[in-house]
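This week, work through this protein record:
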Amino acid sequence: MILATGAKGMLGPYFNEVYTTDEIIATDLPELDVRDREQVRAMIKRYRPAHVYHLAADTDVDGCEKDPDNAYRTNVLGTLNVALACQEFDVVMTYVSTVGVFGGIDKSELHTEYDTPSPVSVYGRTKLEGEHVVRDLLRRYFIVRAGWMMGGGPAKDHKFVGKLADLIQMRDEVMAVDDKWGTPTYAKQFAFNLRILVESGYYGLYHCVNGGMCSRYEMAVEIARILGRDTRVIPVSSAHFPLSAPRPRSEAARNYKMELLGLNKMTDWREALRDYLGSWARGA
């Protein structure tokens, strides 16, 4: 049996497609406050899962920059609480991190698990500190870094793909940044590949993103094409959209370790985006 923290976020609902109701706990339980150590311990003691997926996090990059105390409390100390409970009850832990731990060192190639992290934002730093907590406290763990996440459908997707898809269907033209690079990650594929990875028994640090790299501008162009819209997409620099948190020039990554182990099932980002936006029309 598995237990998932933060199961009501973008990724959690896809676990209901990956696991049967007999295999999973807590996707329909009241939200667990991972900042409360006793609450975390009591939950894991009560259900005694074989595996805990730690999905709960403050993922608002600009919000983390404005309120670093909350970011550290949630993303670092919250992870510490989960890791300590997993240590006490000998539970395998999977911590979902981010390729946003990169960016401080300029690199034109895709980042691999063997590159040195250098986060430029509070969010990236807190997620990296969470990785250190898991690595230092546990013997059996998976740390899995995701990229620019997309998923949840029209009602729940408030990230880039969801926002741009709405704008493209309402406007004749939209603007998108063309000087920042990353790797999209379709949450549904991520959830399925995550199960393959954790059942392999190859503990450690991994990237789990879709193939290739792109700018937000290239994603917007592809969204318009998939939706069959003639919306003009105008490339602009990141200076056009000033934000509280700095963004790396490139946080693009590849699933190098899963490729070497034959465990990588993530498709190219264009194929993943097409599959995701197609699910909107099907009502999925």
Summary: Residues 2-282 form a domain with the Rossmann fold fold (CATH 3.40.50.720). The two ends are 26 Å apart (CA to CA). The longest helix spans residues 68-88. The chain has one domain: 2-282.
